[in-house]
Amino acid sequence: MQFFKHLFSTDDDHLHLLFHGAAREVTGSMHLVELGGHWVAIDCGLYQGHREQAAEANARFPVKPRQIEAVILSHAHIDHSGNLPFLVKEGFVGPIYCTPATRDLSAIMLQDSGHIQEEDAAYWNKKHPDDPIEPYYTRDDAKTALSQFVTIDYGRPFMVLPRLVCQFAEAGHILGSATVLLTLEAKEGGQPVRLCFTGDLGRRSLPILRDPAPLPACDYLLAEATYGNRVHEPPEDMKAKLADVINRTVARGGRVVIPAFSVGRTQSLIFYLRQVFQENLAPSIDVFIDSPLAVNATEIFRLHPDLFDEETTALAKELGGKLFDCPRCHYITDVEQSKALNSFTGPCVIISASGMCEAGRILHHLKHAAPDKRNTIAIVGYMAANTLGRRLVDRVPEIKIFGKMYPLEAEVVKLNGLSSHAGADELMEWILPLKDMLKKLFIVHSEPAQAEPFARRCREAGFAEVDYPQAGEGFMLD
Ligand SMILES: [Zn+2]
What we know:
Number of helices: 15
Distance between the termini: 21 Å
Strand order of the largest sheet: 6-5-4-3-2-1-22
Helix content: 25-40%
Number of domains: 2
Bound molecules: zinc ion
Largest sheet: 7 strands, mixed
CATH topology of the largest domain: Metallo-beta-lactamase, Chain A
Structural class: alpha/beta
Number of strands: 22
Radius of gyration: 23 Å
CATH superfamily of the largest domain: Ribonuclease Z/Hydroxyacylglutathione hydrolase-like
Strand content: 15-25%
Low-confidence stretches: none
Shape: globular
């Protein structure tokens, strides 16, 4: 931070950039810009990881929350938005700018996150009555943060600070996701300074969503590179792969259990499952979507048909309200109904959260499904190290759920095609048109094993300056 203080002169002619979260890692996204002593944050994500490390990282902001005048939010994922209730609790009173769909998704996701924090604290307090803790934030704190949201449509410039204009464009990653262009308007005789943040960048031909818009002309780019060193399967392959999995499992008389994030991934799965059944690629079986958050998120998808791609728009016209349904699709919110699925006999698909199998209803389904070799566990998302999801991928012989060991006899399959992040080739395609105009490319939201090969590739492609900044590093942009 010493370097940072020295560098920042709080003059109002220069825009300064400070890296804080998702610098050399993929969680807790938060970057800051400063102009003449005024601070604006881009994202305010929750750091997810080991309990103590996460608590420490989340409670630390580089400047006092009341000094931050506005937050620009790229999208609703918790690792980009989930620390907002705490920022507000600590004194931030400014506007939180985002697209309307991001606001709607954040409304359910931040309250859900508050609920999880409350439950975590209650669980701890039950186990440690002599050492009680307060929830990190509550559902009410989430509601207070939501009252500060200001929604701005894609393509509509708005003033964040005097002379500092912001504009959102489609990022194609989840519903409402945006790339952020910040322009510092020129003073007389000068040049404007343009800074673009990709947020999380999506992919072409992901179901439902529009493709990312081309990145805008800019001088500085903060590019995510979650998969800077990996190429994904095409999303289109998912239909055939899902059909294969269902056919195999039905032939054995088993069930398919799919851990999936409630927002985005679950809706994409239903989208493909409907096609699988409609085109008779597999026998039509019952599909249970066992996640209250997924039910609410699906309702928000229905509220924003303007954000669908062409194919989905046409389908929505044809299917009306049944876009996120399949013939035997059942949305489950009630806990008793969820438990009743354990005694359901016959082939079925169960989609449930959490995505990485660390908590939630999926644990009950895995506990029942894992010991039976007729069943299939289908992994459709990234599984971080030290999660039950990763152990499933690694095919350990036994898994521990609620303190008890269960043999892992079920088939485990990995379906990679649904990633909502651009792969290495796609990233390169998006940023390459900016090569000759960029003064500096900053790689963020990326672990070293992904970022370093990607940085090399960018240099080889002719990018003049490529940086992989650490938390606490600051830069003057001119
Ligand atoms: Zn995201």
